[in-house]
Amino acid sequence: MRLNIAVLPGDGIGVEVTGEALAVVQRVAELFGHQVEAGEYLIGGAAIRATGESLPAETLAATRRAAAILFGAIGAPEYDTWPPDKRPERGLLRLRKELDLFANLRPARIFPGLEAASPLRADIVTGTDLLVVRELSSGLYYGTPRGIEGDCAVNTLRYTRAEITRVARVAFELARGRRRKLTSVDKANVLETSQLWRAVVTEIGKDYPDVQLEHALVDSCAMRLITSPRAFDVLLTENMFGDILTDEAAVLAGSIGMLASASLGNGPGLYEPVHGSAPDIAGQDKANPLGAIGSAAMMLRHSFGLEEEARAIERAVEEALAQGLRTPDLGGSAGTSEAGHAVRRLLKK
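User: That's the sequence. What structure does it adopt?
Assistant: C-alpha cells below.
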C-alpha cells in the first residue's frame, strides 16, 4: 500500500517529534511491505515567517490531496501579542474547518510502569483506559459574532442538531468497539446549547441499545476524571469542554507528552500529539515523541485501515517503557532521538 502523507511539523518541538513519528512509520512500512510518500509543508509560526500566512494555500492544497496528515505542534512566543485571528494557532483552526474535521479522538491510558509518573496515587490511575471524542469544528471557537469592541468582548456558542448528531454517532460506534459505555458531557443545567446536546445524544442513543449511555455535567465529570478515571470508557464532549478535559486527562497518563490524537471528518484525517510547541525546550532533544508516535499509530489505523501495523507501533512503545525508557517529562533522561530509536528497534511484524 502507498501511504500518502502530508507532514506538517509546525513550530517548536513539533519538528522534532514529527520527525521521530515519521521515522517510525517508515520503519513499519519496511516491515510490512508498504511505501511511504511524505511531503513536508509549512503551517503556524513557521509559515508566517516564510509566507505571511499561518495556513498557506500550498499547504491547504497538499492536505486535500493527501490520504492523511501528520501534524506536530503550533505556536511561537513572538506572536503571543498578535490578535487571535493573526496568530499561528489560527492556521490549525482554519485547517480543521476547511477539511471538516469534526471528531477529535484523544485516548488516555496509563502504560504499565508509568503509574509513578502521574501526580495521582497509583491505585487511582492503574488500569485507566479511556477515549475522549471531542466535537472539533463548531462551538465557542468558531461561533459568530465574535470580537473585542472597547471594554466589551464577545464569543458565541452555537450548535446545530446536525453537528451534534454526526459526532455522537462517531462516539457511539467507537464505544461499540470498546467496553460499550458512553458518557456524554454537557452543562445542561445552565446552557441551552447543552440542553440541545443532551436531547440529541439521548435520541441517537436509542439506535445503540447495546451501549450504556450516561450524561454528566462537565464540572462533576472533571472531578470524576481525577478521582475515579477507571469509571470512564468513551467520553463525548463539545469543543471547549473537550479541550479542557483532555488536558486534564494528561495527568492520568503521566505526562501530556504521552497523549496522541486523531481528528476525523469526511476527508483526510489529521493526527497530532496533544502537547504544544514548548519553545523553551525546542531544539534541545528533550521532547517526548511518544505522543506523536502514538498519533502515527492512530493514523495507520483510522486513515489506512492498517490495524496490525498500528498495534505493532503500540506494542513497541509499551515494550520500550517496560524496559525503562523515560524522557525528561517522565522523570528520566532519554532524549527525543533516543526514544524514537528505542521504539523503532523494538518494532516487530
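The chain is about 40% helix and 20% strand.
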